[in-house]
Amino acid sequence: MCGWAKAIVCGARLRVGRISGCEFCHGEGVGVPLSSPYMGSTPTTIETTTRIGRVTRSVLVVDDDPNIREMLAIHLRNAGYVVRTAKDGIEGGYSVLSDRPDLVISDVQMPHMDGFDFVAALRADRSVSDIPVIMLTSEVEWEERGKRLGANDYVTKPVRADRLLSLVAEQLDAKDRQRVA
After folding, report:
1. Rounded to an integer, what distance in angstroms lies between the CA atom of residue 142 and that of residue 174?
2. CB-based contacts of 128, cutoff 8 Å, min separation 6
3. What are phi and psi of 38, to 5 degrees?
4. DSSP secondary structure letter of residue 1
5. What is the pLDDT of residues 145-179, one digit of tens each?
6. pLDDT per residue over 5-46, tens digit each?
C-alpha cells in the first residue's frame, strides 16, 4: 500500500477505534492533506487525534511546489502539529479564513498571489493579523522586505528540518507569551 493509502486507512481506523496505532503513524494519528485537481481548490485535511492531554497546534504550509509542501508537512506532523497545505496565497487566504491556523509557513515566489502579498493581506485583516508567519525563499535579500511587511521570521531554502521546527516552536511560544501578558 502506498503512503497516501496507508495514511487514509490508518486515520480511519484510529477514528473508529479499531486499532491503537500502526506502522505508519505509530499510534499518534495523522493529518493528511487531500488536495488534487479532482477535489476542487479547497484545501482539505483529514485530522485524527494525537496523544490525549496534549494541545495540538495547527500549521498552514503555503507553497506552490508540491514536493516542498509535502516534505514540510511530514516534518511538522512528525513533530505533533496538525498540518494543512495550500498551493498559493489565494488558497492560503481561503484556508486561513475558513479554519484559522496557529502559524503559517509561506513561500515567497508563488503564482497568482506571492508570499509578500499574502503576508500583507494577513496583516491588513485584523481578525487574522496576529497569526505568526515564517517565510521561505531561496533569495536571501528578500528577508528585509518580508519582515517590513510583517513576517515574523525567515528561512532560506534548502530548509533544514531542525531549524524550521525550532522556529515554529519559538514563534508559537512567543504567541503564547503574548496571550498571557
Report:
1. 23
2. 96, 97, 100, 122
3. -85, -10
4. -
5. 677 778 899 888 888 999 999 999 999 998 888 77
6. 333 334 333 333 333 344 444 444 433 333 333 334 444 443
- pLDDT tens across 74-115, in order? 999 999 999 999 999 999 999 999 999 999 999 999 998 989
* pLDDT, position 144: 66
Q: Cα separation of 25 and 144, whole Å?
A: 39
The Cα 26–Cα 69 span in angstroms is: 22
Instruction: Map out the domains of the chain with their CATH numbers.
Output: 1-51 (no CATH), 55-180 (3.40.50.2300)
150 three-class SS:
coil
DSSP 83-101: EEEESSHHHHHHHHHHS--
- Residue labelled with grid coordinates 494525537: 50
Contact 59, 102 (CB under 8 A): yes
Cβ-proximal residues to 3 (8 Å cutoff; 6+ apart), any chain = 24
Q: Are residues 95 and 127 in contact, defined by beta-carbon separation less than 8 angstroms?
A: no
Return the biggest CA–CA distance within the chain: 51
Q: Which residues contact 11 (CB under 8 A, 6 or more apart)?
A: 29, 30, 32, 46, 48
